[in-house]
Structures are given as C-alpha cells and as structure tokens.
Amino acid sequence: WEFPDHPGFFGNSEIPIQIFQTLFQSPDEGWQVFTSAQAPDGKCLCTAVIPVQGSCSRDLRSLQLRQLLEKVQNISQSMEVLDLRTFRDLQYVRNTETLMKGLDSRLRVASEGHKALNARSFQDLKEKMRELLPLLPVLEQYKADSRLIVHLKDEVRNLSGILLAIQEEMGAYDYEELQQRVLLLEARLHACLQKLGCGKLTGVSNPITIRASGSRFGSWMTDTMTPSTDSRVWYMDGYYKGRRVLEFRSLSDFVSGQNFVQHLLPHPWAGTGHVVFNGSLYYNKFQSNVAVRYHFRSRSVLVQRSLSGAGYNNTFPYSWGGFSDIDFMVDENGLWAVYTTNQNAGNIVVSRVDPHTLEVLRSWDTGYPKRSAGESFMICGILYVTNSHLAGAKIYFAYHTNTSSYEYTDIPFHNQYSHISMLDYNPRERVLYTWNNGHQVIYNVTLFHVINTAGEL
C-alpha cells in the first residue's frame, strides 16, 4: 500500500488506523477484509484487498493497474475518515448558526427601539454579537469542505468503477492517464487535509487495539516527522534499565510481530516517555536527568544533555510511578520535555527543546502537580493532562503555552485496559499512541479549528 503522507494515517499506509480483523489470511486464498471499530455516526469502515489474479499477476501492466485500484480504494477511505473527522465540528457550527440568527434579530429590534433600551444592555448585546461574528467564516468553510468531500467521493467512485472494468478487459484505458487522475485526486485530498491545521482538542475516539504484547509497561511509536515512504514502528518493552529497541518495517509487520531489526542502546532508558522525531530516538538516561538523542541510521548517540534541575529516579513521576519523571513529546511546534523540579514544588514544567542540541529554549510552569497526573501529551502547543492512569480517567487539564494560561477540561477518555503507562500524540498521523496494560492502543482525536479574519484555517 503505497501512498503519500496524509495526517491521520500511518506513513505510507492509507489503511485507516481503525484496524485489523483479517477474515482471509492470504491474498492468494481470497479477498482480505479489514473491519474497523464503529464510527461515531454508526458507519462501519471496511477495506477490501483483492486477491492475486493468477498468471495475470506476472504481467507488469496488470500489476500496475491492480496497485492503482488499491490506491483509489485507499483514497476513498481516506475521504471517509476526513468526513468523520469534520463531522462533530460541522454539527457544532451548524447549531451555532441558529444562535447567530437569533442574536442578529434581537440586535435589529434593539437598534430600531434603542431609545427605550437601557444603554448598558444595548452595549452588552452588541458585544455578544461581535464575539459571534468570527463564526460566520467558520460555518462557510465547513460547508465548503463538506461539499468538496461529497464531490471527491463521487469522483473516486466513478474512477473505481472504471478500474474494475479494466481489470477484466485489460487495455481499455491508458494507464498513464489513469495514474495522472489518481495523482490529481491525491493532491486535492491532501489540500483538504492541510486546511485542518492546529486546533483545540474537543474529543477523543474510542480506543482501537492494535496488538497485545509485552509486559504491563512500555512504549511504542512511529516517527512524528518523516517522509511518506517511512512507515516504521518502534517498540520498547519495560519502563527502566531497558536497552533493546525493536524497529518494525511497517504497521502490518508490527501487528504480526515479523520483519524487525534490533537496536541496542548504549545507555539504558528510564520511564516510557520516549519519542521518535526525524529519525532519532529521544529518551531519558536511566538514573539521571540526562536527555539522550540516539540516531537510528548511524546507530549512535548524537548528543546528550542534562535537563537542569529536573527530577529523576521516581522523584516526580506521574501517578503510576515507573521512573516517569521526564516525558518527551512532539507536536506541530516541535520537541518538548515535560518534567518537574524542586524549585517549582513538583508542578509540571513544559520546556521547548532544540532537537539538534537538546538545549532548553523556553519553559513554562503549569501549576499542575505532576504526581496527580495520570499521563499527558502535547497538541498544537497545548499540554493536555489526564487525571488518572486507571479506569475512569478523563482529560482534565489543559495548559496553553502561547498565552501561559490554563483551564480545566472534561473530555471523556475511555481507558479500556485500566492502566496506561504511556500516552503520546503523533502530529503527522493525528492520533494518540498508548501502552495500556500490555496492549498497544491508538485513539483518533477531534480538533476544533478557528478561522482568522482572512478566512483561512
């Protein structure tokens, strides 16, 4: 499955991350059908992989067309996921439309009879209306995106029908022309997804279990910034003194436990707050507050640096312990380190870190006690904190680094296996990775996007 990188998917694999129940084990035996968890609107997403067509598979043209058909099917499913991703935001904006019309009507009535209206009340009404005006371009943008999604789905459906006919009647259409149409559709889909830039977290999907393996504690991840051809998965079992990192070639290899190489780190790790960013692993060196950058290709440590004052060895861990004093993260803004110090009385510190030198660029004291946090993750410069690592957890607190302010939130978060020891956001795929009691699990996220005065996301 070869595809360009789109947010919300695993590298070059356009199979949505709601996976995997295989009904047929081999393409030679029959159709492979992958089923997803049920979507919020009740839909069930499926992917069908065609079987090998006997001797025709040895024909280059047949192989190219079959790959093209798989590509189109994956684009179609990508648009389904885009449709679901914008569903909740669109519903919210549509509901707001009625409120705006009502306020507009009240303002017109108040303007006509302003002599009998209290001046302060009139001014308050005008302020409320002014606050709602930015929602108008938001509404128009989501309406336009919705129409575009429908149009793209129709185009792909037509193209899929043509390709199915070609498989039976080889040579009816020119392969190069069809490939150009697919590339055009890919570009338009990518443009749609790129519009959905940074936003505020409003929802987390139900958990999707990818695999059950390893001990109770550990971490797993894909690269947060990598070319579209790279879909490797890294796996680190255990929470302290480990040195063995498994690198799987793809997500499907990780699911099956096959096709991996082993990296033996020169320094053991502490905790589970590791992250892979642009080909390097960032982790906390055991029994120290030293940050280490290990480069996978050269199999060497490029740099290591102490995080001044940061607690370690279970001095300031998350509530589950596990030497989780220092937690590395990556979001749309780059590399972060989350930890705490004696100077800030055990409250969570968020630091922007230079990924090349590991130098701390700027730090924020969130005021939230780290020992009360279950886990945390960064999205768009905002730190989100869960109130527990156990069953019944929710996303309870958010700290905004752009305004140095915080708020309490109430975002449901289904902790299926009742003990989370790793939780990280991947900005390239727009998903949360978790290690939950020996299960590797992912969550989709819903972000609310605000439009500026120029009308762009």
Automatic annotation (TrEMBL):
Record's PANTHER family?
Answer: NOELIN-2, OLFACTOMEDIN-RELATED
> Which keywords belong to this entry?
Coiled coil, Disulfide bond, Glycoprotein, Secreted, Signal, Synapse
One Pfam family hit: OLF
- Which Gene Ontology BP terms does the record give? signal transduction
Which compartments is it annotated to reside in? Secreted; Synapse
Which intervals hold domain Olfactomedin-like? 197-449
UniProt-listed InterPro entries:
Noelin_dom, Olfac-like_dom, Olfactomedin-like_domain
User: Where's it mainly located?
Assistant: secreted
Query: Which organism is this protein's natural source?
Result: Prunella himalayana
Q: Can you say what this protein is called?
A: NOE2 protein
Q: Which Cys-Cys disulfides exist here?
A: 198-380
- Cellular component GO terms, alphabetically? extracellular space; synapse
